[in-house]
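Justification of resources, computational component.

The compute hours requested in this renewal are based largely on the per-chain cost of generating structure records like the one below. Each record pairs the submitted sequence with a full structure-token output. That output is archived, and it is also reused by downstream analysis tasks.
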Amino acid sequence: MPREIEHKYLVKNDSWKTNAHGVQYRQGYFACTQPTVRIRVIDNRGILTIKSSEAGISRSEYEYSIPLHDAEEMLKKYCKGILIEKTRYKVDFMEREWTIDVFHGANDGLILAEIELNTEDEHYELPSWIDKEVSDDPRYYNAYLYKYPYTKWRRKM
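The structure output for this chain reads:
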């Protein structure tokens, strides 16, 4: 069974941007329950993902390439509500690849960094631009942001 093991952090400044190139993502959800079923358009590719939503840093994840036309049609027909729109950057730090998501639209203002690991107890160094860890806070899951956009709940904090 494929597993995704990742830690998720808020980002406190933009010093990570040096030489970073971003890719546009748009995604919507068929189901935000157990499991989450997501459709993504990444540049000119369509991706279908089925992901478990258990607590912790490790989840089951299945991803499949689908035709771009099908992905676009599914986003329009079946994904009700806002779409998650973000620019995703890959940043190297201490021989590790970090993913930085800069959200737009209804989640504007949110910047998250993730690092994927091979094991739950794997050691890694934190870059200086990392802030608070939010791996166990479900508000920062994309499926939550799809239903409860950051621009709305951020004001209540």
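The chain has a mean pLDDT of 90. Residues 3-156 form a domain with the Hypothetical Protein Pfu-838710-001 fold (CATH 2.40.320.10).
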